[in-house]
Amino acid sequence: MKQGFLKVGAGTPRVRVADCEYNAGQIIQLIRQMAKEQAKIIALPELCLTAYTCGDLFWQERLLEEAKEQLLRVAKETADVDALIFVGLPLEYESKLYNVAAALNQGAVLGFVPKTHIPNYNEFYEARYFTSGRDVQGAVSFGGRDVPFLARQIFVCEQMPRLKVGVEICEDLWAANPPSNCLALQGANVIVNPSASDELAGKASYRRDLIRGQSARLLCGYIYASAGEGESTQDVVYGGHSLIGENGVILSESRRFENEMIYGDLDIFRLEGERRRMSTFQPEDGEGCEKISFSLEVQETALERKFSPDPFVPEDRGDRKQRCDEILNIQAMGLKQRLSHTGCRCAVLGLSGGLDSTLALLVTALSFDKLDIPRENILAVTMPCFGTTDRTYQNACHLSRRMGATLREVDIKEAVTVHFKDIGQDPEKHDVTYENSQARERTQVLMDLANQRGGMVIGTGDLSELALGWATYNGDHMSMYGVNGSIPKTLVRHLVSYYADACGDKTLAGILRDVLDTPVSPELLPPADGVISQKTEDLVGPYRLHDFFLYYMLRWGYPPRKIYRVACLAFAGVYGEDVIRHWLQVFYKRFFSQQFKRSCLPDGPKVGSVAVSPRGDLRMPSDACGAAWLKELAEF
Length: 636
What we know:
This protein folds into two domains: 278 residues, Nitrilase/N-carbamoyl-D-aminoacid amidohydrolase (4-Layer Sandwich), CATH 3.60.110; 318 residues, HUPs (Rossmann fold, 3-Layer(aba) Sandwich), CATH 3.40.50.620. The protein is 39% helix and 17% strand. It has 20 helices and 20 strands. It has 636 residues and is of the alpha/beta class. Helix 7 crosses helix 8, helix 8 runs parallel beside helix 9 and helix 10 packs across helix 11.
């Protein structure tokens, strides 16, 4: 529960049709097994105390009384279980029968939630027995106390008030206006669905899409527990297809026909943060909705949830290829529009032989192809200076020629040396002035060449560099259109790799792969024995870590302690905890101190959910103080 993480579970007991005593025993056993796994919300299937397929036996008073007796037994025998538990049963209320989910906590029955949408088509005949609970709002005397009986109930955790649980039952999700819509708008951020959805060819994928989509629309966690083996009778078969979703992602899914228990770690604070961010998520006043408290022991959830060390990069190879193709097209289309709008038929970019400028050239070439402008109108400028190595110089030259661009070499050593003399800079003093003078001279060359040709300077800097402020103000920081401004460094690498695989040109692919193998460096300090001596990641830290920090800070609003925790899980065996802590501190210091550079960025295409443009996603004051974030880091 700490930091908003909560383990939840869905389980499918093996039942006997109409044997409530046997079913209760199976349910108790299942609850205890799930409690051992520390599940704090436990969802069981629809009508699992009696079985869903009882048919006309639902009219038998003996079955209904036995179901109530066995529910009391389940509540009593799980009183020591630290969880909110949902069990399905038929329940009579004012001479009508309802299909309900009972909420249990610490031995008490907290509420009965009736099903709203009663199916009566195809193989379903529920309306023969059950009444819709849509308009019911009352209480049932049960176990010596009055228990709320209504569809709109939200169960709120006393120890974690941001945890709010709503319930809908099976067909409710399939309806045009599911009850979960209303429940979510009235505060519920976890929806439990006890279900008895039978199996048909193709139905599993539709069911999966429903849960994925509903959890995304409602920005909620969704726990779906379905009936399985033991229910199957006459013409229907049940597969126990349970799922746990969160904001459009399926966290856990059972194998069908196995009667499994599944678990998922929901991030409640992440869901609440996303709701705060989404201006179109408009809460309602909660009229007609009853809030009911339940209790859980505050514990730190042992996380089984997986955190990719590269959150900007899809793990599946097929998804990654599709994403890379999509991003390259977004970049190219953005540049295409700018070139078309300005009537510009020439692009100028500095080509260093490094990753970022390589990607910028690939994108520019794609844009020119879309506009039917000859690639020779791309002026690729290599500007060797004190730190340039033969490897990067040769790669820049070979790449430019292979892409069909016009190559121009402008050696800036003499110009920078004169500049040093003008400002009184000792050329043997390799400080920030020594480095930035080269970066600014390169930008001046590009701007002036663009003026000569009526061209546009294409920026090459990426999102990771902007986040860290790893750019020379009014040097590589500046351009007329920055195509890489929302591409993190970890993704730049995959985009170039994808192009190498897809281009169908072995020679070009070989050049691109050598660029990929070259250490990331601004090459502003003299090389050692012809080899790059200035490696960026030695100075500012590993880009994989910084991209991870950036993603969870900006996309999900995680505080430092939480980022540190999940980073330790994601990078276990790669970086030690002290290393992660050190670079996280560096990240926060640089992120806050360098906002002034991001506040005056050139335009560039947004390609993902994390971006730092002052005109789009990040409206951050240049003088914002990061003391609170650094304070939290210092406290652990």
